[in-house]
Amino acid sequence: MVRALPFSIYGLVPQPSLEDLDNIGLAFVGGFERSTQSTVSVTYTLWRNPDDHDDPANLAEIDEIIRDSLEQDPPWPRPRWLIEQAECMRYPMLWEAVRTTWTADAQEYQSLPNQLVQHLNHILMNRFRAELGIPDGPPSGPPGTEPWHARLSAVNPKVNLEVDGHEVDAVEIDTDPFVYGIGAQLSPEIVVTVVIPRADLPLIRLALATRDRGGAA
User: Residue 43 to residues 96, 137, 195, 211: CA-CA distances in angstroms?
Assistant: First the structure.
């Protein structure tokens, strides 16, 4: 499905602290074949000590239930891809860190600032629930009304982002205590947004490159 998409996909430039294992998310408005808006998200494994993958510093903080499930072998054989996917759960991830969004009609869907706000709030709601005190279940109020939500007023429109080796105009959200967001309009149809936890920012080079459809850029 990714190879069949009619637009380029972007990811963070290759760097020692990140591993791109083709962990891709897809979302469509109107279905795959008749999509009027398509979003591709890329998730990375994060190496805090990329020089030594066996360093315990690389391990993620996981609860006992997940830890026990990883330690136990099921009574049935598992394919290699499933074993490798399970092993990835031992390490922290940059979940849906980069989004590429294509729209058939640029006037019909939301602007770059809106898309960046939505991406950032999506990461907050799904990865920082405990820190934000978000109860289980869907949000109780209308979109954008929760006190922890980033809002359009937080968007700074005067920054740059490196994409394929060139600086482009970008917007950022640098006001949230847990995450940092940046994005750029690369064409009338293409928006790319990046959201990174603040704790991981020192390990990450914030630069993008066109991503190969079959794997890392």
Answer: 5, 23, 11, 13
Q: Rounded to an integer, what distance in angstroms lies between the CA atom of residue 161 and that of residue 4? A: 27
| 72/137 Cα distance (integer angstroms) | 30
Q: Is 190:9 a contact under the CB 8 Å cutoff?
A: no
Determine the pLDDT at residue 217: 43
- CB atoms near residue 11 (< 10 Å): 25
Beta strand 155-163 with 207-211 is parallel
- For residue range 165-199, what is the model confidence (pLDDT) as tens digits? 999 999 999 999 999 999 999 999 999 999 999 99
SS3 category, 200 = helix
Residue 91's pLDDT is: 85
Q: How many CB atoms lie within 10 A of CB 144?
A: 13
Distance of alpha carbon 78 from alpha carbon 82, whole angstroms: 6
